[in-house]
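Aim 2, interim progress: modelling of the fe (ii) ion-bound target.
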Amino acid sequence: MEKKILFIGDIVGKPGRQVLKNQLPGLVQRYGVDVVIANGENAASGAGITKSLAQEIHRAGVHGITLGDHVWDQKGFVDEIDDLENLSRPANLPSMCPGKPYLIVEKNGFRIGVITVLGHVFMKISASSAMESLDHYLPKIKEQTDAILVEVHAEATSEKVALGFYLDGKVSAVVGTHTHIPTNDCRLLPNGTAYQTDAGMTGPYDSVLGREVQPIVDKMRDGIPRRFPVATDNVQLRGCLITIKEDGLARTIEPIRAIL
Ligand SMILES: [Fe+2]
Ligand SMILES: [Fe+2]
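Predicted structure of the complex, ligand included:
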């Protein structure tokens, strides 16, 4: 039977958590969603996540939580991450890092593997080759699952689309995150993998990537460091909905938007 996966882009701060709580139950019902995966790397005031916020996101209806370059921003999370069953860190961080390099989410007998890799261009965190990491983990994930979603957490569109074609026909979906700007390119690649360059963020869109506009503009003008509070206006949930066939490849992918 076909399965529907809702992937939700980076949840930013309290506004992001709020729109998730308000809108997710309705989306799940309307689209008949089987599994919900969300990136939570900005859940805590825009930077990182904590154990209690991960639990809050799970209670809102998210089955699997992924992270990105902000994984360690919250002090103490390194000691909490291994307590969290359905949360993974980027797979290509140094192997001694705590946390799971991939997730297997099981719902009603359907098992989906979820793995996040960090890109290399303009990323300020030390990560090994995304391709080598995927080559290493994907066969292990494939053995245990019916479908695989690869999240490419990267700045450069070229890295994302290249990984999309690299994995075309080998995984169910390749979806990008990190830029917080949703891209208008949901499509099926030639060999059946669903693809979107960036799912966008779940948070305030009257902002610069989730932060208040004015302090960012001021910093760009004068170069003086300031605080960048999370913005509050025009809060939206963004992501994509993927239909996966019995053979593990995708039939459809479409962008999803819900407004607070
Ligand atoms: Fe992010
Ligand atoms: Fe990021």
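The helical segments are 13-31, 51-59, 77-80, 130-144, 157-167, 213-222. The domain at 3-259 is CATH 3.60.21.10 (Purple Acid Phosphatase; chain A, domain 2).
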